[in-house]
Design a protein that fits this description.
Elements: H1 5-24, H2 28-59, H3 63-70, H4 72-96, H5 103-121, H6 125-131, H7 133-155, H8 164-186
């Protein structure tokens, strides 16, 4: 049970940001919009922990990186829990918004959520055995799709003066995470996690 705490953390972070959005918005629409924005941001560090776990242990094999890699499944499930709260906030913000969204604008996020769901449902040893090599393909594709959606979502905020700072910071974090993964690929061999 001790290793499962990132799931609880993800849920609590998501719910905390949801409540913060409710407390900060001037109208119901703004409350849901802020909740959607802040739950996405709060989930990003959980995603990065999952995205970087195996790379960090390759680059810096230490107790902390081994623990992160060992518990990667739970960090991923913590991100899924956090993003479930984000999904609810996003659906409500979209439904209440006076500006309608096109179906095309919903496709990238929809694909990312499909991967989050599939990855969460297959985050068990039983699923790994049943899917064989396809398990690794699913999780590798999914984590990179989620990384791309986050990166594009934050990069598109850079041109807007009101959101430029957060766009620059989050895009830089996403690109740094990718650079770490690429650097780790060059390191051989992968150290044992135990």
């Amino acid at each position: 049970m001790a290793r499962k705490w990132p799931v609880i953390l993800g849920l609590l972070v998501g719910l905390g940001m949801l409540l913060t959005g409710f407390a900060s918005g001037a109208s119901v629409v703004e409350q849901w919009q802020l909740a959607a924005r802040w739950t996405a941001r709060a989930g990003f560090p959980l995603f990065l922990a999952t995205y970087l776990a195996s790379s960090l242990v390759r680059i810096s094999p230490a107790p902390w990186s081994r623990a992160l890699a060992r518990d990667r499944r739970w960090w991923g499930l913590g991100f899924a829990a956090s993003h479930t709260v984000h999904f609810i906030a996003l659906v409500m913000a979209t439904r209440l918004s006076p500006e309608p969204r096109t179906i095309v604008s919903l496709i990238p996020g929809g694909v990312a959520y499909a991967f989050i769901l599939l990855m969460a449902l297959t985050s068990s040893n039983t699923a790994m055995r049943a899917l064989g090599r396809n398990w690794k393909r699913l999780h590798a594709a999914g984590i990179h799709v989620i990384w791309l959606i986050y990166t594009l979502a934050y990069a598109k905020r850079i041109p807007e003066p009101a959101s430029r700072t957060i766009g620059l910071i989050m895009t830089a974090l996403a690109l740094t995470a990718l650079a770490i993964r690429l650097a780790a690929r060059r390191k051989q061999p992968r150290p044992a996690l135990a």
